[in-house]
Automatic annotation (TrEMBL):
Record-stated family: Belongs to the DegT/DnrJ/EryC1 family.
Pfam families per the UniProt record, alphabetical: DegT_DnrJ_EryC1
Gene Ontology biological process terms in this record: polysaccharide biosynthetic process
GO molecular function annotation: pyridoxal phosphate binding; transaminase activity
Residues with PTM N6-(pyridoxal phosphate)lysine: 191
Protein name: Pyridoxal phosphate-dependent aminotransferase
Alphabetized UniProt keyword annotations: Aminotransferase, Pyridoxal phosphate, Transferase
Catalytic residues in the record: 191
Stored CDD domains: AHBA_syn
Lineage: Bacteria, Pseudomonadati, Bacteroidota, Flavobacteriia, Flavobacteriales
Length: 375
């Protein structure tokens, strides 16, 4: 059997263990310490805007805290892009609020400005203004930042920017992760950089960051004993995990370059195949190409290719199944135009790791080309 080719596997720089060793040597084995502070400033320097970063246990925790900081409570409604991973939507339910799902547009596969405005108007007409909008840069492709911002501002609704898949992407030369009223990052095992598990909340003000750190460390008030006026969470990042993050930040740009070159490799290999299409970058958009995705003529071809790859020990995966189609969210109001359902049927994510070799990429393209040669 050929060696397994993963969709997106961790890729260490070699420097991670240096920072972990420092943590052990200084006995900073805790959810605070020099690596946590250092990782936060590494991200702040990278994003290069007037922002404040709180390192947390996961991207999901960052989404949960962003809802709390924006004052989302039981009975509220929050708009969420339907085409996304469930972690974008679950924290809405943690707060006792209700998700309202909005479909995608075909240029970026992300939240559609027309459907968003239709949803906002309709929710207001029904008696409740949504408390926040969760917009996602799927697979690293920025959403329509200006168009979404214009609508959000017109109705005075804050944006939570889910940049879990888009560290290293940018829109009109500004880095993704800096566009929301609050933004989140993820460092899970499959993301463009990983700390094994981890995330960050990107704040616009120092006060927001202080609040995030306070809530993520059990909401301890200033007192010699443990005094609590708020419900707290254990969401802070560990100093060991942050050491991995410090090492990973040193190779983020080269990971972006390699993932983009994977995409170019696939594009070139399939350039004469009219049955395979790609999502291109609109002008001013720069995607980290976290995952390389292809669109196929129909569901059957998509499945046959997925199974043919599986037989060769190559992992691939259909695009995110939209949230409005998930059993757990079947009763949520949704504003749909058919785009997210269509790309779920026909889209496939191909192996995209920054550690793939040329011969592994060739195995992927050869398997797919053979499928088309036979049928
Ligand atoms: C990975 C991911 C998250 C969640 O991040 P975790 O760190 O795994 O909790 C949220 N949103 C999107 C779009 C993601 O891909």
């Amino acid at each position: 059997m050929n060696d397994k080719i993963w969709l997106s596997s961790p890729h260490m720089s070699g420097k991670e263990q240096f920072y972990i060793k420092q943590a052990f040597d200084a006995n900073w084995i805790a959810p605070l310490g020099p690596n946590v502070n250092g990782f936060e400033s590494d991200i702040e320097n990278y994003l290069n805007e007037d922002i404040h970063v709180a390192a947390l246990a996961s991207g999901t925790a960052a989404l949960h805290l962003s809802l709390i900081i924006l004052g989302v409570t039981a009975g509220d409604e929050v708009i969420c892009q339907t085409k996304t991973f469930s972690a974008s939507a679950n924290p809405i339910v943690y707060q006792g609020a209700s998700p309202i799902f909005v479909d995608s547009e075909p240029d970026t596969w992300n939240i559609c400005p027309e459907q968003l405005e239709r949803a906002v108007k309709d929710r207001i007409a029904k008696g409740k203004k949504p408390k926040a909008i969760i917009a996602v840069h799927l697979y690293g492709m920025p959403y329509k930042v200006n168009e979404i911002r214009e609508i959000a501002d017109r109705y005075a609704i804050p944006i939570i920017e889910d940049s879990a898949e888009a560290l290293g992407s940018s829109y009109k030369n500004q880095k993704c992760g800096t566009f929301g009223d609050l933004s989140i990052l993820s460092f899970n095992g499959n993301k463009i950089i990983t700390t094994s598990g981890g995330g960050a909340l990107v704040c616009r003000t120092k006060e927001q960051k202080q609040k995030a750190v306070f809530l993520s460390t059990q909401a301890r008030d200033d007192a010699p004993h443990y005094e609590h006026t708020h419900i707290g969470y254990n969401y802070r990042m560990s100093n060991i995990v942050a050491g991995i993050g410090r090492g990973q930040m040193t190779i983020l740009d080269s990971h972006v370059e390699k993932r983009r070159s994977n995409f170019e490799f696939y594009k070139k290999a399939f350039k004469d195949n009219d049955d395979i299409s790609f999502l291109f970058e609109p002008k001013g958009y720069f995607s980290n190409r976290w995952l390389s995705c292809i669109s196929l003529p129909d569901y059957n071809v998509r499945e046959e290719i997925r199974l043919a790859l599986g037989k060769e020990n190559i992992e691939s995966r259909p695009l995110w199944k939209p949230m409005h189609a998930q059993p757990v969210f079947k009763d949520a109001p949704s504003y749909l135009n058919g785009v997210s359902d269509a790309i779920f049927e026909t889209g496939l994510c191909l192996p995209s790791g920054s550690n793939l070799t040329e011969s592994q990429l060739e195995r992927v393209t050869t398997t797919i080309n053979q499928y088309f040669a036979v049928c």
